[in-house]
From TrEMBL:
Protein name: Phosphoglycerate dehydrogenase
A single GO molecular function term of this UniProt record: NAD binding
Organism of this sequence: Cyprinus carpio carpio
Domain D-isomer specific 2-hydroxyacid dehydrogenase NAD-binding, chain residue ranges per copy: 137-252
Description of how the protein assembles with itself and partners: Homotetramer.
Amino acid sequence: MAPLSVKRVLISESVDPCCKTILKENGIEVTEKQQMTKEELIAEIQNYDGLVVRSATKVTCDVINAGSNLKIIGRAGTGVDNVDVDAATKSGIIVMNTPSGNTISAAELTCALLMSLSRHIPQAVMSMKDGKWDRKKTIGYDPITPLEVSASWGVEQMSLEELWPQCDYITVHTPLMPSTTGLLNDASFAKCKKGVKVVNCARGGIIDEAALLRALESGQCGGAGLDVFVEEPPKDRALVNHPNVISCPHLGASTKEAQARCGRDIALQIVDMVTGKALVGAVNAQVLVSTFSPDSHQWIRLGESMGRVLKACTASKEPYSQVHVTSLGESLKKSSGFLSSAAVVGLLAEGPQKGPNLVNALPLAAETGITVQTDHKDSDEREVCVVEVSVNGSSFTTVGSVQAGVPVLLELNGSVFRQPVPLTGHLLFFKASNSTELLLSVTGVLAAAGVELQSFSASTASSGEQWYCMGISSLLGDIGALKSLAKEAAQLTV
Ligand SMILES: O=C(O)[C@H](O)COP(=O)(O)O
C-alpha cells in the first residue's frame, strides 16, 4: 500500500507522553486536548488526519463524518467499542488498537478483585477506617477451584452450559459485541452455583447489570468485582453501593507500565503505517495487512486501473451487480483480497460514493448493491488478475498483469492485445472492425482536437469487432465524433 500521509494528530485523552514524543520525532504535528465535549470534538476534528483516544472519547458517526481529513483513529488500548468502527470503515478510515499493551495490567486487577472478593478486603479496610475491629465478616473463605488444564493452553475447554454450574468465580475477558452482550444474564446466573462470584474488568454490559443486581439480592451471586460499567461513571449507583460489590473506576489499564506500552505502541504503529513499513493492530482493515510489501503496490495500481477501465468502457450500461476477481499464479495467492478491493475502488471512483479506498471498498460495494467475489487459481504459467463485472445482465472482462514493475492490460472483453497496454496516462479505447479507414479517421479526430497519438495497441484477432487502445497526450474534450465512428468508445486517465 502506498504510505498514508498523516501530518496532524489530535490526542484527545490522557495518553502516555511517549506517544506524543514518538509521533513528533517522526515529523507528525501533535495537539493534546482533553475532556472535549462532543461538539468541541466535532468542530475540531476536521483539522486533523489522525486521532488518538482511550475509552472515554466517543468517536461516533457524527465525529467521523465531521473528520473530513481523518485517515486513522488510533486506540491507545484494547477496546474499540467507543469507536463507531462501521462508520469509520465506510469513510475509509483505519481503526487501530494496541492489542497487548495493557493485558497484563487488566489481568492483575482481575486477580486483585478476585482476592479482594474472596477475603472481603475493601470491606475490612472500610470498617477499620470507621474505627471498628470486626473480625466476623472475613472468616468465610472458599478456596478458588482452578479450571482444568486444556490440551493446548492448560485449560479444559467447555461449553458455557457445562461451565456455569461448575464455577465458583467467573471472570470475563471479551470485547463487548452483540454475541457477548449479556453473556451473564438471569438464565446463566440461574445455572451457576449459588454464591458464585463474578469479576468484570473487560466491558460493562458483558454481565447484564440488572440481572447481576437481582442475583446479588437473591444471594445467587455472592459478590461482584466491577471495574467497568455500561455507563461510565454509572449514574445508577445500585451496584456500586451494594455491600457485596467492590468496584473501581475503570482502572484495569491504569498502570504506568500499561500506559507506557499503549502510548508507545500506538505511536509506533502509526509511524510504521505512515512510513509504509507495516500495519499492526488495524481492526477494520485486514485487507491492508498484506499490502505492505513493495511488490503489492503495482498490483494494487493494476486492480484499481482495471476497475477504472471497466467503468469507462461500461459506464453507459450501469448498474453493476457483481465484480468477480480471480488471481492466477502462486505469488498472488495472498493478493486476491486486496486485488478485489482495488478493482472496486477503480469501479466506484468518481462516483457518488465518498472517497472509495481499500478500507471502505467492500462496504461501499455492498451498499451499492454490488456482490464481490474473489477467487484464486494456481498457475505455473502466468501471474494475472482477471476482473469481470456483471452489468445490466451482461458481463465484461479485463485481464491484466504487472510486467517489469508496470501494470499492464492484456485483454479487454475477449480482445487480446498484441502488445500489453501500460496502464498509465491518458488512454482511449474503442471497439470496431479492423479497417485502415477507421484508424485513419480516428487519428484524424485526434489531430483535429490537437491530441497526440503516443501508442497504439490492437487485438491479435484479425477479423470481427475488436477493442483497440491508444495512449494519447491528453483527453479529448468530447468523444462524440469517435463514438460515431466506432461501435463503442471510452477514454480515461489512470
Ligand atoms: O479497552 C481497554 O484497553 C481498557 O478498557 C482500558 O481503557 P482505557 O485506556 O480507557 O483505560
